[in-house]
Specification:
The complex is a heterodimer of chains A (112) and B (113). Chain A is built from no helices and 11 strands. With 112 residues, chain A is mainly beta. In chain A, strands 2, 4, 5, 9, 10 and 11 form a 6-stranded mixed β-sheet that branches. In chain B, a hairpin with a 7-residue loop joins strand 9 and strand 10. The termini of chain B are far apart. The model of chain B has no long low-confidence stretch (mean pLDDT 93). Classes of the chains: A mainly beta (112), B mainly beta (113). Chains A and B meet through strand 4 and strand 5 of A and strand 5 and strand 10 of B.
């Protein structure tokens, strides 16, 4: 089965700096990857996704990078703001079941 | 804007009582997922439905949990009897079968004393 892990459970960054959150997955057949943001007391909110036929995808202030060779995924947040403070989850999907397997989450804290 | 809704948002009950959580998926979405989130286990998939048919409920304790979709606009998760170890936040998510992204509701925070 799939296992998904994040490299760091917590990350603190200064406001205005860039943030990088990393994620590793185990199943080389995984073909869909997604990042969620979860604020306290709320449900996970979709940020950005990427399929295995791409290496990079950009959104508004966010970029997802996929390295299939080492089975590594990262989320980059540019010019981190206080509103970015939350728990960030990566999730991966593979096979016909199309179920998402979630990592354990990284708590991002933005320091003033 | 379209979003998944869940009721109740909070539920406190005593051990042994029945608990029913409800979810309204985004209109037009044909897949519905139930997750449980705890500090120790993170997000765990309990069950999911496609076109109202249950596809996988292997994550649910079968003796006390049940999930149904009476119609396309309502999904329910029932626990009977509830136990303190069921205390968690329960999320519903919906999506389209031809797409992978799932959209989460705000969750039901369940406390069983």
């Amino acid at each position: 089965g799939e296992s998904v892990g994040l490299h760091l459970p917590t990350l603190s960054v200064q406001e205005g700096d860039n943030s990088i959150i990393n994620c590793a997955y185990s199943n080389s057949a995984s073909d869909y990857f997604i990042w969620y943001k979860q604020e306290s007391g709320k449900g996970p909110q979709f940020i950005i996704d990427i399929r295995s036929n791409m290496d990079k995808r950009q959104g508004q202030r966010v970029t997802v990078l996929l390295n299939k060779t080492v089975k590594h995924l990262s989320l980059q947040i540019a010019a981190t703001q206080p509103g970015d403070s939350a728990v960030y989850f990566c999730a991966v999907s593979s096979g016909s079941a199309r179920q998402l397997t979630f990592g354990s989450g990284t708590q991002l804290t933005v320091l003033p | 804007d379209a979003r998944v809704t869940q009721t109740p948002r909070h539920k406190v009950t005593e051990m042994g009582q029945e608990v029913t959580m409800r979810c309204q998926p985004i209109l037009g979405h044909n897949t519905v997922f139930w997750y449980r989130q705890t500090m120790m286990q993170g997000l765990e998939l309990l069950a999911y439905f496609r076109n109202r048919a249950p596809l996988d409920d292997s994550g649910m304790p079968k003796d006390r949990f049940s999930a149904e979709m009476p119609d396309a606009t309502l999904a329910t998760l029932k626990i009977q009897p509830s136990e303190p170890r069921d205390s968690a936040v329960y999320f519903c998510a919906s999506g389209l079968s031809q797409a992978d992204e799932q959209y989460f509701g705000p969750g039901t925070r369940l406390t069983v004393t």
